[in-house]
Sequence to fold (230 residues):
Amino acid sequence: MAHKRAAFITFEGLDGCGKSTQVERLAACFVEQGFSVLVTREPGGTANGERIRQLLLDTRTARLAPLTELALMFAARVQHVEELIRPALDAGQMVICDRFTDSSEAYQGGGRRLGKMLVLELHRLLCGDLQPDLTILMDSDITASVGRARRRNQARTANQDSDENRFELENRAFFARVQAAYLEIAKREPQRVFLVDARGTADQTHTKILEVVSSKLGLNIFSKKAQNRC
Ligand SMILES: Nc1ncnc2c1ncn2[C@@H]1O[C@H](COP(=O)(O)OP(=O)(O)OP(=O)(O)O)[C@@H](O)[C@H]1O
Ligand SMILES: [Mg+2]
Fold:
């Protein structure tokens, strides 16, 4: 069918702003509309990438140099692009990715102060400069979203599911730099990056995201009626 073409959509924003929640909800809508969808995440997505994710996010990973952190992020990303993202797009699948290179620009470029040029150059050299068709940047308050991520992670750690707290241990100044870097990306690339207010309920945010996705991708499938169902 003509409208079932591939698109690459990424979600960005601070820890705990609700990205994974919204990724799942958007994917469910696409599936309901008959799209073939790949939902994936960074760092990770592939078997090797998930092993790198463990190293990057685990609180027991001590003394990681910022450049090592950036290199590991890109190591996982190259594998992800080659093994999963490009083949899925080539096969006509919709790809929704929870974080992508904008996260490296915000966290390692801004948060760790490595600067954006290094990140953008690595992306060009290693990932063939693959750009999402649309990036949803979820705009949230630092205290509320990082607090939520910390509570969620503590519950998971207590259940021994995982220990992905390493970034959440950072201080407010770090997250302020991350947020500033994100906003700079949105300003630089208004055609690709859409800022969505994520301070409301998950339902309210979902509705806003559907509006952006429909208008940006030229899909009129997310009617009010359809929105109520997904
Ligand atoms: N709009 C919302 N209002 C209140 N709580 C929310 C909202 N959206 C998600 N949550 C809850 O907040 C926590 C963090 O949400 P989620 O895991 O989706 O965020 P995230 O952006 O993916 O975080 P991370 O960057 O750490 O992966 C979860 O416990 C989730 O259920
Ligand atoms: Mg998440």
About this structure: The longest strand covers residues 8-13.
